[in-house]
Amino acid sequence: MKARCAQCHEVFTVSEGGQQTCPNCGAVLELNTPDSAQFSSSAGNGWPKNDSHQDEETVETPWEKRGEIGVFKGFFDTVVKSITEPTPFFAKMPRDNADGALSYYVLMTLITGILSYIFVFPLKKIMPQNQNTAQALEHLNSLRETVGSNGQFVIDMLQSMISGESLIGGAVCTVVCVLLFTPISLFAAAGVTHLSFMLFGSKQGFSSTLRAIGYSCAPNILTVVPVIGNFLGPLGVLIYGIIACAAVHRFSGVRAVAAYLAPMLTLVCLACGGAILMFTTIAQGLP
User: Fold this and answer.
1) Averaged pLDDT for residues 177-198
2) Measured between alpha carbons, how far is residue 266 from residues 43, 271, 275 in Å?
């Protein structure tokens, strides 16, 4: 007989009802007998009709209903639901289509990028240029002789964005950069995260992870907050990314945290190891 864990939604085999322990997350469950009223229920500590996650009830995100309810309402409702009700939002959303998550992620990044640039623009007008900014502008000027007429336009936009001379030029450059690089960053992040979750035993497809990463980006809007925004935004994305991946991969909290942070911790360990090796090599070469 099959039972579903109310905590992580893992389906597992049991020989009888009563108190059971989920083999996936360790939660203690009180299962009713299969001939009880909860036999056909798909929620709670019950006996599911079958063992496939694909047959569970799914609910499209508001963003994927934007053709019916409008773009603004679809976007706003998705932001609200993904923040205020993250676990049911991610657990019930479909997992076989990445288009909605990609467009939502790009739009959220676009809005965040433009708002951040608008808020920072006045500061660029009054703050003196630092050495890195001056070097970047000088390097762009040196490229003018090697590019064509189309390249001149791109250089002008980049200089406007870096120097803060033109709000419109900087905003246009921000839009172009977001449209070019955001899809790449989403697929790269989803690919690394999915590989980690697979190593931790997930059986879900790649689109599940991509949708989780794409729809958990709403806290990134906090980066527009002066001073502390660059800390709050990434922290919020990290927390909601873990919640989203735990829901779509049916992982317990601890297991999801481990799988989500494993690539970052691996990168940190490699960086620290490389730094130690470099300093050791330099120290050995000193007289």
Assistant:
1) 92
2) 37, 9, 14
Q: What is the DSSP string of 79-103?
A: HHHHHHSHHHHHHHS-SS--HHHHH
pLDDT-derived band at 37 (thresholds 50, 70, 90) equals: very low
Question: Percent helix, strand and coil across the chain, each rounded to 5?
Answer: 70, 5, 25
Each residue of 142-157: pLDDT tens digit? 776 676 666 666 666 6
* Contact (CB, 8 A) for 95 and 204: yes
- Average confidence score pLDDT of the chain: 78
Nearest to 24 by CA among 207, 210, 211, 259: 259
pTM of the complete model: 0.70
User: Which residues have CB under 8 Å from 86's CB, separation 6+?
Assistant: 216, 240, 243, 244, 247
Residue type at 257?
Answer: V
Count other C-beta atoms under 10 Å from residue 265's C-beta. Answer: 10
In the chain, where the domains are located:
2-55, 62-282
3-state secondary structure of 4: strand
* DSSP summary character for residue 200: T
Ramachandran class of 250: left when φ > 0, alpha when ψ lies in -120 to 50, beta otherwise: left
Beta-bridge mates of residue 4: 11
Surface-to-core class of residue 4, CB atoms within 10 Å of its CB (0-12 exposed, 13-18 middle, 19+ buried):
buried
